[in-house]
Structure prediction request, 862 residues.
Amino acid sequence: MRVRIAYTKLEEAKYIAHLDLAKVFERALRRAGIRLAYSEGFNPHPKISFGSALAVGVEGEREYVDIEVQSEMDLKDMVGRLQEQLPQGIRLLEGRMMNPGAKALMAILNAASYRIRVPMALPISQSQLEEAISAWLGRKEILYVKYSKKGRQEKDIRPWVKSLAGTISGDEVIFDLEVEIGNQGSVRPDEVLGSLREVESLHLDLDQMSIKRTGIYVSYEGLNRSPLEHENSVDSPKTSVQGS
Amino acid sequence: MTEFIAAEIRRQIDRFLPKVIKPSRYLGAEWNAVHKEWDSVKVRMAFAFPDVYEVGMSHLGTRILYHLVNSFPEFLCERVFAPWVDMEEKMREKSIPLYALESFRPVNTFDIIGFTLQYEMSFSNILNMLDLAGIPLRAKDRGAEHPWIIAGGPCAFNPEPLVPFIDFFLLGESEEQLPEVLRLIDEQKSNPINREEFLLKLTKVQGVYVPDFYNPVYKSDGRIEKIESDVRVPKVVEKGLVKNLDTAFYPTQPIVPYTEIVHDRMMLEVMRGCSRGCRFCQAGMIYRPVRERSPEVLMKHTEELVRSTGYEEISLTSLSTGDYSCIQPLITGIIGKYEPEKIGVSLPSLRLDSFDVKLAEEVQKVRKTGLTFAPEAGTQRLRDVINKGVTEENLLQAAESAFRAGWSHIKLYFMIGLPTERQEDLDGIVALAKKVVELGTRLGRRNVAVTVSASSFVPKSHTPFQWEPQEPRLSLVEKQKYLKEKLRDRRIKYQYHDVETSFLEAVFAKGDRRLADVLETAVKSGCKFDGWSEHFKYEIWLEALKEHSLDPRFYASRAIDYDDVLPWDHLESGVTKRFLMREHHNALKESRTVDCRFDTCPGCGICPDRGVKIDLKG
Prediction:
């Protein structure tokens, strides 16, 4: 039985690295007495797969995981038992049974939205903010320079950004950002804001920023849909459940 | 008040935590972590492991004592590890004191901080952690407002280089002693008596070593003339010892970290102690006698561990798990019961002569894990010297079993610089490694890979080799080079350790109290994480030794006389000095000594008058 679950990754759970998350779920499932399905072979792997990776320290309001279990079971019971064994900050929101042939999350998720709160380094007015954002969005190409193990790397981040808006709230700026994600890569919210600060000279204190991914989507013809309502979910009574 | 500080620490670190390596190290929110109400208990202990989280959390003793203390309603225990250098830098920059993971309270607000001494190269981290905690390093500079700083673990059997920094030590196994110590601290909190009186009271607890009451007197040549002891305390401190492992406390709801640790699995402790009698091995001497747990108790522990952790692997731990008398039924039992849940078994410490095909096949049923053998020396002669009772035939048989059962990677542990080592012993290492590789290839295993790990012998206190010098640095380097050259084969990977680290380890393993000044100077000059080659600063250590006019070779490279007073002569492991001398003689005669589990008693001295005996369940 294959189940797709929407969950949060908030508070301290935001520090669980993506690579460790599969183990966290695998062990929680075993504690819950739910038998996972495993791959065949020399070193069997549990069939748990995620959508796009969330960077360490970034909260997620609605993330997705696919879990395959050995035998049919009551979805509501499964989600309830699993919830009891998960770390604080991971809350199961919704679950749905999927067709065995449903495409993997990785293959269908292609957009993400973020909300980012950044303190101002120097006072910024709403009009300055809007001007900077529209100037930035108006550029055809925005090179972002990254230094990594491979040395200096340059990439054009503009194509990945679908929308960006900002409002001022006290000493903070709140940004709403939507980006494309896909096999060819994506752009990280801290890269977008880093660029905005540099290119448009916006006085943001990026050391103190907090980032939350508000959703990841299957985006098609301008419409953001949840991977739970994807055509491959099983549509019959008792195949979906809302978390408590 | 401390609640407010804790909230502030939490708020501050939350700002930079996403930027440090592995933030999960610093949170204390793992599954099964114990969070007690601060005001609901009488005594609060911080258990301190002087290395990073992934290393400390892999240590069984730490797990046992943490949950043991928390099993008492009147005590609480939280954890603290050495923050990695990036975290330390940020903490110092923001003046955040060392805090305990569970509550984020500064460790200097606890009643007692207990350091575990697993290896000498972590000593510098202890001082660095005290400094980061804002606690004066030296006991004489601390007052009633500071926590008691205590330490235990294997290096407590020669803790002399740490003496000025630690109020008292716990020798041996502390399952019974630590709660007793905490009760006395509770008494001290409600009815304080002066420091000396209190420490004197503590000396009545078995295993407690209060160094203030012992005073080494040195000869002009630097050797110890005698160790004076206060008339009110025993001349020799006797270690703590668990008599019955079946009834001893065991944590079956251990913490499950959210980041991968070194030994990331359930640990099932099948027995304590080892009487094989390898003459270089300190653990084999200080944890005697052998005491096993019964299979029924172990199956019960396994069930509780599986339910409480959800781990996918269980490790049967002890100093030599293949020697556990009920190993076969235990493995069969665990695999039979938990195979449907895909739980694998791993055996971390197998001896070559106790490894057989059946065991290998059982273990590999669920998941393949690495296989490590430790012949330790390259020839039968040298294996007889160290009393490692395995033969080349044992090794080849074991390797054959492993290859046939499906393994293609085998790791072989050796030591270089063992007493009496000759050229032929080095060649023996090469020959053995090649034989194993060829065997694998002949048996048709593809990707045969043999890792040869050669560490430099470090003579340790309380072993038959405690009188032996360590081989000089340069000749060890030569030997490493020789092996590297001879082991050139794409199927063989050769690993060796930094000789300078082993040299310093030997200095501290057999060091005395005068090294404390060196330690403090080195730490003040930036030494920490000495066990991590990227942080080891050999030159600074040499300078610190020079500054205090101490010659490291005096400790590491000198052949010690039987008549010399050893810095640890007042600390008792239960194995007599006479036995160790006899064993040293036997080593030089290339003569083997039997294991009392399978033969007659060689008279190591542990059993008489202690109410213990070897306890086998099979």
